[in-house]
């Protein structure tokens, strides 16, 4: 089991990240020391497979945080200290009343990738003298350990390099120097836009028309968008309104709702600066959207239902909430939704990824960040 495949794979991964996702590349740490690796094996009482040793001699893990390098499994690469800590923790919880169970966690397993927010992660079988020595598995806290990821860490890294080099065909996306891995986009059903409007008294699902442009937005809508959320929170109101309009048009086109004359007319009017139609369940736009809700319910198409609801929110609701939820919806239709949102916001410089202190200090009257402000105040007391 030579280390050549490990070195070649890391060379490919490093080169790709350096060119396409430099901020993610910067989280990969320098090599571990030989003595550090030897001591770790002694402390755990196992022999690391040569591929794990070779990988540690290339990168001693990845720094924590939202920019961290993560495998396609979502697990962050662990260095020697992380391996010791996480493996020790797993040994503490992996012993049932009947002793070790191979489907859960064994003493000879060593964790080298961590999901961080749970105990899930990638592991390597370090039980010498077995055919499975060096095999890659993954631990899931609800079901235990499963193998079949790869026969060696070198093979696993080679597959990761292949995926990066395939780019968007493999769900690989970069934005602001960071690596993201997206799920494959599902095929969307086609709908006809030729149906006449139903009568106002036809039985259709009700549309939520309780929105108001002045609705207060809870900061949780923004927090998940990281640096884009911070940008939305700090841009002038007019810029956010413009971005909300552009995002809603993109969503209408991608979902086919723009083919309906009632939807297109409302968006066209918004672009001209005209006031939206009154929020009336029997108005042409609301009737059209209610018809879409009925079709979506019949076809069990939750995405189309959400899109129709989003059109209503965009026309009659808060532009801050609209721009956030349109972006969320568009992630079901395009891998480039982050770049599109940034462009629609005017492509300004992006702020750092916000932390709790940023949200606590935010002073935007249409955004409710009071929880963060209260928490930060308590932390300072």
Automatic annotation (TrEMBL):
Gene3D superfamilies: SMI1/KNR4-like. InterPro entries: Knr4/Smi1-like_dom (IPR018958), Knr4/Smi1-like_sf (IPR037883), KNR4/SMI1_regulator (IPR051873). It holds the Pfam family SMI1_KNR4. It comes from the Bacteria. This is Knr4/Smi1-like domain-containing protein. PANTHER family: CELL WALL ASSEMBLY REGULATOR SMI1. Residues 31-159 form the Knr4/Smi1-like domain. It comes from Streptomyces viridochromogenes. SUPFAM superfamilies: SMI1/KNR4-like (SSF160631).
């Amino acid at each position: 089991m030579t280390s050549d495949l490990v070195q070649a794979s890391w060379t490919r991964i490093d080169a790709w990240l350096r060119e396409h996702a430099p901020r993610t590349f910067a989280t990969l740490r320098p090599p571990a020391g030989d003595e550090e690796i030897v001591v770790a094996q002694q402390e755990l009482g196992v022999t690391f497979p040569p591929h794990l040793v070779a990988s540690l001699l290339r990168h001693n893990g990845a720094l924590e945080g939202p920019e961290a390098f993560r495998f396609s499994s979502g697990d962050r690469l662990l260095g020697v200290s992380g391996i010791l800590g996480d493996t020790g923790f797993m040994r503490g919880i992996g012993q049932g009343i009947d002793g070790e169970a191979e489907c859960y966690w064994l003493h000879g397993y060593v964790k080298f990738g961590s999901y961080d927010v749970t105990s899930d992660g990638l592991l390597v079988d370090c039980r010498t003298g077995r055919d499975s020595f060096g095999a890659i598995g993954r631990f899931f806290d609800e079901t235990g350990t499963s193998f079949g990821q790869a026969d060696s860490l070198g093979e696993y890294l080679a597959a990761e390099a292949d995926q990066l080099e395939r780019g968007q065909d493999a769900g690989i996306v970069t934005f602001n120097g960071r690596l993201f891995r997206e799920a494959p986009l599902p095929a969307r059903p086609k709908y006809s836009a030729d149906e006449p409007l139903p009568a106002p008294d036809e039985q259709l699902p009700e549309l939520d028309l309780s929105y108001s442009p002045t609705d207060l937005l809870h900061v949780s809508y923004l927090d998940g968008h990281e640096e884009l959320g911070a940008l939305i929170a700090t841009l002038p109101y007019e810029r956010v309104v413009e971005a909300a309009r552009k995002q809603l048009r993109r969503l209408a086109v991608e979902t086919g709702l723009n083919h309906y004359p009632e939807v297109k007319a409302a968006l066209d009017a918004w672009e001209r600066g005209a006031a939206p139609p009154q929020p009336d369940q029997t108005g042409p736009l609301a009737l059209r959207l209610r018809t879409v809700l009925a079709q979506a319910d019949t076809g069990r198409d939750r995405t189309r239902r959400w899109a129709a609801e989003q059109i209503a929110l965009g026309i009659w609701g808060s532009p801050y909430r609209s721009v956030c939820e349109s972006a969320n919806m568009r992630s079901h239709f395009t891998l480039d939704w982050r770049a599109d949102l940034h462009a629609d916001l005017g492509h300004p410089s992006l702020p750092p990824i916000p932390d709790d202190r940023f949200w606590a200090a935010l002073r935007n009257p249409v955004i409710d960040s009071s929880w963060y402000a209260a928490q930060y105040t308590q932390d300072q007391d």
